[in-house]
Amino acid sequence: MDLSRVRVLIDEDALRARIQDLGAEIRAEYGDAPVTAIAVLKGSFMFMADLVRAIGGEVRCEFLGVSSYHGGTRSTGVVRITQDLKHPIEGQHCLIVEDIVDTGLTMDYLLRLLQVRKPRSLKIVTLLDKPTNREVDVDVDFVGFTIPDEFVVGYGLDLGEVYRNLPYIAVYTP
Ligand code: IMP
Q1: Which terminal Cβ of the chain has fewer Cβ within 10 Å, N or C?
Q2: Does residue 21 have an active-site annotation?
Q3: What CATH topology corresponds to 12-152?
Q4: Where are the domains of the chain?
């Protein structure tokens, strides 16, 4: 890990404050209803942990293993499911919890994968949105931060499996 290559973009205080607000927004959307939060692994594990606490009420946690990058900094568009959900989601209010939406290819694939399982509703929350690179239109319901087209690491996001444990979001400069 080379910290001279990273520059803080969103610090811990800003993350904490925004995630609290997102949680309240999401809870208000569902009222008292139970919500099934589906974390897209590995990138969203840290966001998931903070977000479900901020949502409060009855939240079930599911984890979906997805691999859409193969070590580089560009999306390949190839999505591989590395771990499926452990329970059916039919009839449930489901919320996909993603770290970042970039081209939208991963989210487009996941929406189609999960929609056929007949959830009662299916919404998306992403911590980060990089809209400049969008290749497919995806309707993201809740966005933490909109960021410019730069490669970011930290708070779950990696570059070749490194930098995930940084407590902030940072821009990586090769
Ligand atoms: P998309 O399919 O291009 O929208 O990319 C979605 C996935 O690519 C995310 O879930 C991340 O795993 C990864 N990704 C996209 N941009 C970045 C970035 O700036 N840093 C780290 N991972 C990224």
Answers
A1: C
A2: no
A3: Rossmann fold (3.40.50)
A4: 12-152
